[in-house]
Description:
Layout: H1 2-19, E1 21-23, E2 27-31, H2 42-55, E3 59-64, E4 67-74, E5 77-84, E6 89-98, E7 106-108, H3 109-128
Antiparallel strand pairs: 1-7, 2-6, 3-4, 4-5, 5-6
Helix pairs in contact: 2-3
Amino acid sequence: MRIGAIVLGLTLAVTISACTTAPIQNMTNNPVASASGKQLSSEEVRGAIVRAGAALGWRMKDEGPGRLSATLDLRSHEAVVDIPYSTTSYSITYRSSTGLNEKDGNIHKNYNGWIQNLTRGINAQISAL
């Protein structure tokens, strides 16, 4: 009876922890389009990404021409993403994390919300140019 309770407890713990993860969402080839329809320069796109990230608490770092990395630290959690960009598109791709239970292409479900918020922020900044 006691072994059955232990097995049940372990099964429940695994099931609950699985409910807090989701497949990692990468945002690839998001179009760069200003509201006016004007072609933006690479520097304008970079500025829009940096402003959006800073407004949401992401630390941005230049990684070379057309490439940024961004780090978000929340309590004991850290997410790091790569953001390649050009005058026509940008992407946000997972690089690494701490405390987000990343395993086999899955990660804590909050990560995807952070990436969606960053994408919306970038799109709003680009649209305003």
